[in-house]
Structures are given as structure tokens and as C-alpha cells.
Amino acid sequence: MNRRTALRRLLYIAGGTLLLPACYRQSGKETIALTHLVIDEEQENLMAELVETIIPASDTPGGKELLLHLFVFKMVDDCHKPEDQADFAAGLASFAACSREKMGQDFRQLTTDQRIVFLESIEEMANEQVKRFYAITKRRTIQGYTNSKYVMTDLKKYELVPGRYNGYFKMG
């Protein structure tokens, strides 16, 4: 056996060992470790669809592809007060129930147009938990998108301060 073959096999074994735990994800567990919030897989998938509805994929990546739902969870878990975290968790549960009640289906099963109609109707709802949840989610989703690697590297062109020199610019 030559050295290259042995190294190649060793790398395959190491790569498989690193990849194997990802294949055995227990159903019902969240993807991201949170300290104060308790989120299950169903709620995480609901949040992923909500974030994708707020920032849909087009020629640019959408909210789900940029993992903005995980950003929202992490920001609420780390940066919000305990009462806001409680409102957020209660609002997430109420959001799913309101979707079933108002639209007759789970939010994830709605078409894109139905989702938009439902999100626009949140403003007129009497449920304050859902309103608060949606406001936090929308704000953090937009913050996550504008601070994402994709936006910062591909969409915004950074220019060093003080910018370009323009010799033709008239002064006063």
C-alpha cells in the first residue's frame, strides 16, 4: 500500500466521521442551541416558512436559504428581555393557531398569496401576542438580511473612506 492511498482512505474515514452525526439528527430537536427559548422542529420549520414569506427567494437568496429563521431565534434568545422572549414564544404558538383558525390550514400549507394575505391581516387581529411576535420576527428578519454575508459582500459595494476623488466636483 502506498502513502497516497493510505492518506486518501484516512481522509475518507475522517470526513465520514465528521458527517455522520449530522445524518442522525433527532427529530423534534432544534438546529441551534438556545439558552432561554425552547423551540421544537415544527416551530423552527414554521419560522423558516414565515421568514421565506417575508424575504422570498428570487434572483437573490431568500430568507430560508440565508438561515434567517435561526438568526431571529438567536437574536430573540440573546438580545431581548425575558418578557419579550415569553411574548415571542407565546406568539409563535398563537401564530400557528391563528393561521389554522383564519385561513383553515396550517401556515406552511398555504400558497404564497394566501400567506401574504394572512400576514397583512395580522394588523387587524385582536391577538396582541401574534402582533408582537410578527413585529419582532419582521424586524429581526430584515436586520438579518441586511447584515448577511450575501448582502454585505455581493450587493453592497464597499468604498474606503473618504471615497473616490472627483476633480470636477464644484465646491460652493
Work out the strand percent.
Answer: under 5%
What separation lies between the terminal Cα atoms?
A: 79 Å
Largest sheet: none
Backbone CA Rg: 22 Å
Percent in helix: 55-70%
Query: What string, H for helix and E for strand, traces the elements in order?
Result: HHHHHHH
Please state the structural category: mainly alpha
- The residue ranges in which pLDDT falls below 50 over 5 or more consecutive positions are none
> Tell me, what's the shape?
extended
Protein name: Gluconate 2-dehydrogenase subunit 3 family protein
InterPro entries: Gluconate_2DH_su3 (IPR027056)
Organism: Sphingobacterium corticibacterium
Pfam families: Gluconate_2-dh3
Q: How are the SSEs placed, and which strands pair?
A:
Elements lengths: L2 H21 L17 H14 L13 H12 L2 H22 L8 H10 L6 H19 L2 H7 L17
Helix pairs in contact: 3-6, 4-6
Architecture overview:
The protein is mainly α. It has one domain. α3 packs across α6 and α4 crosses α6. The longest helix is centred in the middle third of the chain and has 22 residues.
Task: Throw out a few tags for this protein.
7 helices, 61% helix, Gluconate_2DH_su3, 172 residues, Gluconate 2-dehydrogenase subunit 3 family protein
Question: How would you summarize this macromolecular structure in one to three sentences?
Answer:
The chain has helices at residues 3-23, 41-54, 68-79, 82-103, 112-121, 128-146, 149-155.
